[in-house]
Design a protein that fits this description.
Radius of gyration: 20 Å
Shape: elongated
Cofactor: Zn(2+)
Structural class: alpha/beta
Keywords: Cytoplasm, Metal-binding, NAD, Transferase, Zinc
Catalytic activity: N(6)-acetyl-L-lysyl-[protein] + NAD(+) + H2O = 2''-O-acetyl-ADP-D-ribose + nicotinamide + L-lysyl-[protein]
CATH class of the largest domain: Alpha Beta
CATH topology of the largest domain: Rossmann fold
Main location: cytoplasm
Strand content: 15-25%
GO molecular function: histone deacetylase activity, NAD-dependent; NAD+ binding; zinc ion binding
């Protein structure tokens, strides 16, 4: 049995967060705000600096831009890999173990839900820990690619990381200035372009993954959004779908979202503090 939340909703709809969690079979849709307590910045939070994430068209259309990206990623991915789940991730995993949460659809690529112990996770936008060849579709681990890149770029990371470290973006990119001497490698099977197994802006989420997410929402009793502004349609469509099928929708986010009009309850608060209050 879940406890009563100490947080007051910013608007009262038909169903509250207390209601949906007490009934169970809840699907969580999570965004970047879920991971800010782990030290990963978000793109659109109220206190976030302006960011211009890379587009798919930029990645495939400009060799120099692609090399520059991989240089930053070569530094940034290991910092992402070292990031640990926060209290919100752990609380969500515990709610799954208790049978309250049935699954997680995450827009994040940081793999922190899996690291926290959540088992039924759909990584909507992919994960930072895999790399895909755009020609032959071969998948390799980021660890394996790191070994190849380190071999052809000895000392690169040490040369660009200052005493204060680097700033990491939500897609495992790192803010560094000098990348001119970085060397990229191609697929060792076909010579094709390698790309992180992440859905970039301007790129479509694979249809089977979208279908699996819709099925998860269809099988759930309610949808709870955690830490997402729902600015992009890849997440907003599941909120619209749930509302269309008369499933309760509750949104927990520090600011307003594009999905607020579909919500029965909205809480303007941090994910970790809200989720841990139900343990």
């Amino acid at each position: 049995m879940t406890s009563v939340s100490p947080f007051s909703p910013s608007q009262r709809g038909l169903v509250s967060l207390d209601d949906v969690l007490s009934r169970g079979n809840v699907v969580a849709l999570t965004g970047a705000g879920m991971s800010t307590d782990s030290g990963i910045p978000d793109y659109r939070g109220p206190d976030s600096p302006p960011r211009n994430p890379m587009t798919f068209q930029q990645f495939i259309g400009d060799d120099e831009f692609r090399r520059h990206y991989w240089a930053r990623n070569h530094v940034g991915w290991r910092h992402m890999d070292a990031t640990r789940p926060n209290a919100g991730h752990r609380a969500l995993a515990e709610l799954e173990r208790r049978g309250v949460v049935s699954g997680v659809i995450t827009q994040n690529v940081d793999m922190l839900h899996t690291k926290a112990g959540s088992r039924n996770v759909i990584d909507l936008h992919g994960v930072y820990g895999r790399v895909r060849c755009l020609s032959c579709e071969t998948l390799i681990s980021r660890v394996a690619l790191d070994e190849r890149l380190t071999a052809v770029n000895p000392g690169f990371t040490e040369s660009v990381v200052g005493a204060d470290g680097v700033e990491i973006a939500p897609d495992a990119d790192a803010e560094i200035s000098s990348t001119a001497h970085f060397r990229m490698v191609d697929c060792d099977r076909c010579g094709g372009i390698l790309k992180p197994d992440i859905v970039y802006f301007g790129e479509s989420v694979p249809k089977p993954r979208v279908r699996a997410a819709y099925d998860m929402v269809d099988d759930a009793a309610a949808l709870v959004v955690l830490g997402s502004s729902l600015t992009v349609m890849s997440g907003l469509r599941f909120v619209r779908h749930a509302a269309k099928h008369d499933k309760p929708v509750v949104i927990v986010n520090r600011g307003t979202t594009r999905g607020d009009e579909f919500a029965d309850d909205t809480l303007h608060a941090g994910c970790s503090e809200v989720l841990t209050s139900y343990l």
